[in-house]
Amino acid sequence: MLEPTLTPANDLIREGGWWISTGADPFFLLDFGTSRIPSGRTIFRLDVEVEGGSFSPTLYFDVGTGFSQALAQELPVRSIGTTGVLLALPANVRAIRLDPMTGQGRFRINGISFEPVSRLSLAWHRGKPLIRTIGMQPKLLWPYAIHAAKLIKHRGVKGALRHALRDRSNEGEGGAPASEYDDWVVLYDTLCADDKSKISSHIARFSLRPRISVLVPLYNTPETFLRRCIDSVREQLYDEWELCLADDASPQPHVQKLCEEYARLDSRIRYVRRSTNGHIAEASNTALEMATGEFSALLDHDDELAPHALYMVAAELNAQPALDMLFSDEDKIDEQGKRYEPWFKSDWNYDLMLSQNAVVHLAVYRTSILREIGGFRSAFNGSQDYDVTLRFSEHTEPARIRHIPFILYHWRAISGSVALATTEKLYPYEAAERAIREHLARMGRNATVEQQKHLGYYQVTWPVVQPEPKVAIIIPTKDKVDLLRVAVNSILGKTAYQNYEIVIVNNESVEPATVAYFEEITKDPNVRLLDYNKPYSFAALNNWAVTQTDAPLLAFVNNDIEVIGPNWLGEMVGHALRPEVGSVGAKLLYPNGTIQHSGVVVGIGGLAGHPHVGEPGSAFGYFGRAACTQRYSAVTAACMLMRREVFLEVSGFDEVNFAVAFNDVDLGLRLGKAGYANVWTPGALLYHHESASLGLPTNDNRRRQFLQECDNFRRIWADVIRNDPFYNPNLTVSGGDFRPNFPPRVHKPWLAETERIETQ
């Protein structure tokens, strides 16, 4: 057994046997002394006590290319200190890092160990929890039995045994086991007979039964996939649908024969064969002409719907009849029917929609509006659904667009499909760029659009009005002159935007070098110095600083920031001048070039955290979310810009509840509540030498204050902690790496309805 020592490397201090996490991303380096660093099958144990904050430990491994998210392994908190957790460590590990939590908190580690295991001890280790459960409380065996039954049903006895004994953490890409999503599907996304029965009962109680027309433009579809497509509609648990098949003059005879066969079999299936080939937009319009339903759902000719897809749509419409548009999560399905690559989406996210088609499948539209806007346009073939969604959004409002966080659509990945390889068809991406540009023009927005290097993703740049409005860049500091000098000099030397002032707020600095620097730097006409001679409060200090400037734009910037790209300020100002935008955040990198901030997700670590932390700065992230401008619930005030009028409208930072911690997240959430968007842009790029200048909670008063502010955040924002609308309840909150959560935090309407009736 190996028992490494812990060396704090970031955001951690020691006090009386306790570790205190003082920042967003604390971590230890593990020192094994002269012992060989473990690899292969290993039982990891961590005996820990947590007092404040949310413990979500993750191990990172350096195999010669530095620490990265690709080899990260999340650790289940419940078992790491008892039976331990079995890991399959990478080969040739040079160093191991332990990230205890994603935010601030207090904890004590009583023991940490790695124990290499053989196959025999491996089987024993996996059997102990079950044996102990049977011995202690036989009734608790039921969840294990359900789990095992599901695995045996879907994989057979041999497959389930292989599942139980395999090395789970060393398979697949991105640090996730190749079968992780398989397991998630079996456990949480496979309807059992009881589910179907409850869904049928729920449907019987619907007060509204809207007809949903499923529009399918088709052309030379392989028979196997066309049958699966049609059958997936016929297998819907909600039966108030019609299937509108528009054949775009397919030359292969099996298409007409098969469609006519199904039309005879089921009166809800309507088939039209076009006389000429007009391509996908025209065929979609033909299907739309056939539709008699209040809502129209789009289905590609070789894809499949989940059996509860239309039920989920109808359930949402019963709950919110005024909805105009609905969309769901999706995954891919290969030619053998294997599901993979789930896309768990944000709720309606306008800026993300301008960066990529963030809706895609399953998309359902109110038919009357779809016809009002003229249906689909042939000039946008290949991206006709992207174009139609943008145009549709112009005729409704965000409150009438609903995201359903369930995998309701399986996108077929076959040769020649955009789902399989984006490089197989290039014309859709050019059409998408035009669709975005025309949408902005119709909305009267003077912004430019260009394709990113990743096909299917776009960058919209918002112009700055002339003359440039003045920006007050507010930088609080207490000594740490070496950091401050880098921050100020990089702003002065690298910023292309001209009309700004740097307002240094001196919070009782005492070091002679700092005083000397103040005298030197204030000779620059762009720099002002203010003295704030009160106890440190980030919220109060910045609120006061705002009163000392009349600039219409406010940039809150830490003293450990360093500018990388010269357009950072202009990029942020362009967004901040948009009337619907409340705050704008930048892309921040650690000095080693990895991501520190790409938005804030509420709920990570039990409070709030950053997604994509530790990934390379050039990483594309989860479906482009590390590289696309988008909306989040909040952005970090380490570099945040907003209009003065908006800051004052929401009363600035909360000095009472969040003097030191979570004040920026709270501000973002209050902005959202007031109807403003918090936009994160990768177009503003800076380094963040995080925690080098933080005031640490080294005394009892500061520690109590921090823990109280954690409690305040949980109390005030409990609803967003449960489900951040710009994340997804199917994704983990133990870290920001967008892995499936076991179990998901979704609300299943058929179960909720049953519980409601039983309590009456």
TrEMBL record:
Report whether Transferase shows up as a keyword of the record. Answer: yes
| InterPro entries recorded | Glyco_trans_2-like, Nucleotide-diphossugar_trans
Any idea which UniProt keywords this protein has?
A: Transferase
Extract one GO molecular function annotation from the record: glycosyltransferase activity
Domain Glycosyltransferase 2-like: where? 213-373, 473-647
Q: Which domain of life is it from?
A: Bacteria
Keyword Transferase attached: yes
Name-wise, this protein is GT2 family glycosyltransferase
Organism, by scientific name, is Paraburkholderia silvatlantica
